[in-house]
Amino acid sequence: xxxxxxxxxxxxxxxxxxxxxxxxxxxxxxxxxxxxxxxxxxxxxxxxxxxxxxxxxxxxxxxxxxxxxxxxxxxxxxxxxxxxxxxxxxxxxxxxxxxxxxxxxxxxxxxxxxxxxxxxxxxxxxxxxxxxxxxxxxxxxxxxxxxxxxxxxxxxxxxxxxxxx
Length: 165
Description:
Layout: H1 2-17, H2 46-51, H3 55-58, H4 68-87, H5 91-117, H6 121-141, H7 144-162
Helix pairs in contact: 6-7
């Protein structure tokens, strides 16, 4: 049996050898089945093409120039923030809440990276997120009554945060 397989393989190799082009021994590192192709003519790549343009030509449609109205609006914003900061009585409380928010964001980042390191858990969390998104769309966004309810809830939350309620 082994002798018959070896004979069949050697006869197939002899039959296919006549189909392959002969390659000189100096090019033995190349694949025998593919002929040598000439080098491609110079074709500019995107990187070379972009080097030819100056920055002003490339980003001319994205240039934004500051106007006096923008400068005054920034100054007004800073003056308004300074005025509100001066009106605050408990500045230490605001700083404490701000620091607590930064710590909470950092801690949540640590927890998420720890969850991400567990092999199966990220995919499960992704499915949970997709499920919640689907539920939220069905509950609040799909029908007019749900959208109205969501708008009312948001307005109520705004009043609660602003202290109007």
